[in-house]
């Protein structure tokens, strides 16, 4: 028997076994199941692609710090739409007021899978010229898909950090960006640098479990106001928020048992005074004086504004005024603004 004939016989034997296998019920059942799965996957993708974008019109006063409840509701409604696998057009065309903190919140949100749930989104820029300039020069377009080129404004800094790292060089550069613009020099201003370090350090504490700390992400946005010469800082930690962290939960549990208090706002004074302590052993290398140190610095006249928004509480830490929010914010937002004083 020739080699060629032998190969031909082997081929026909293999083919015969394959054909016999295809005629079995198990084969037909698996094949049918596979076709259905592929079909479902294709049609699901096609449906998603064909879906129109839902127009999600932003509040005219698009400021997280100064219009907190309304802007927070806007983002909560967007996340609900994403959960339903809807696609969203973030329409900020007709806003009449825009502050840097809202830009930081928007860019952090659309880059967070827990927010967009892998659904599509698009958006434009404000029509109002001065707001359009602020938005386009913020650095926002570095972190979203765009066809055009948008130059970041001088002195502005928008940074995304994927892990809970303390970054001294970034803190130094962020502090210098404000010092140069607001004070007109490069003299170190220790309170500003220390606040940035504390913000980075405390992201370790904003987790429900110490093992999950490294999964937290944070954003920093430094904006130089061209007219006033003030500089604003927006620090956004996408953890669970201060009052849902394991440290605060343990503290509140003890207090609840003793006093029967349940609202987060009732524990703001304890938080600001330092009665709610960090995990000292675990955070020894990166831990400073925490929130009490930030509160102490905030009282200086150099700091024009200073706020913390976390969970369902907003705190003006310059005045210690606290506000119960209508909804709960998933994370911690720390915002401050420096000004030149005589």
Overview of the structural elements:
This protein has 342 residues and is of the alpha/beta class. It folds into two domains: 50-139; 156-342, Histidine kinase-like ATPase, C-terminal domain (Heat Shock Protein 90). The chain is 43% helix and 20% strand. It contains twelve helices and ten strands. A five-stranded antiparallel β-sheet has the order 6-7-8-10-9, sandwiched between helices. It has a three-stranded parallel β-sheet with strand order 1-3-5, with helices on one face. Strands 2-4 form a two-stranded parallel sheet. A hairpin with a 4-residue loop joins strand 9 (303-316) and strand 10. Helix 8 packs antiparallel against helix 12 (290-298). The longest helix has 26 residues, at 25-50. The protein is elongated.
Describe the structure concisely.
By secondary structure, this protein is α/β, with parallel strands linked by helices.
């Amino acid at each position: 028997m020739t080699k060629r004939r032998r190969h031909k016989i082997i081929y026909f034997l293999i083919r015969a076994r394959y054909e016999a296998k295809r005629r079995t019920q198990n084969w037909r059942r698996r094949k049918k199941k596979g076709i259905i799965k592929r079909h479902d996957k294709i049609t699901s993708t096609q449906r998603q692609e064909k879906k129109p974008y839902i127009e999600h019109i932003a509040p005219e006063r698009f400021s997280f710090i100064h219009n907190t409840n309304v802007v927070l509701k806007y983002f909560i409604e967007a996340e609900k739409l994403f959960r339903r696998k809807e696609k969203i057009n973030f329409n900020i065309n007709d806003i009449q007021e825009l502050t840097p903190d809202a830009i930081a919140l928007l860019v952090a949100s659309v880059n967070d899978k827990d927010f967009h749930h892998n659904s599509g989104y698009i958006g434009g820029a404000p029509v109002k010229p001065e707001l359009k300039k602020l938005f386009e020069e913020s650095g926002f377009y570095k972190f979203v898909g765009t066809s055009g080129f948008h130059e970041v404004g001088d002195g502005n800094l928008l940074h995304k950090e994927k892990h809970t790292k303390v970054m001294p060089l970034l803190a130094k550069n962020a502090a210098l960006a404000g010092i140069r613009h607001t004070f007109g020099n490069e003299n170190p201003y220790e309170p500003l640098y220390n606040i940035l370090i504390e913000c980075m350090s405390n992201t370790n504490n904003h987790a429900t479990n110490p093992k999950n700390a490294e999964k937290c992400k944070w954003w920093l946005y430094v904006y130089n106001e061209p007219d006033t010469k003030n500089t604003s800082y927006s620090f956004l930690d996408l953890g669970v928020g201060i009052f849902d962290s394991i440290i605060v939960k343990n503290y509140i549990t003890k207090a609840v048992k003793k006093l029967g208090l349940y609202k987060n706002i009732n524990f703001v004074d304890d938080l600001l005074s330092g009665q709610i302590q960090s995990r000292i052993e675990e955070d020894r290398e990166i831990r400073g004086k925490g929130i009490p140190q930030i509160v102490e610095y905030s009282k200086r006249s150099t700091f024009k504004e200073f706020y913390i928004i976390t969970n369902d509480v907003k705190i003006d830490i310059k005045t210690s005024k606290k506000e119960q929010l209508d909804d709960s914010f998933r994370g911690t937002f720390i915002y401050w603004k420096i000004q030149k004083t005589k």
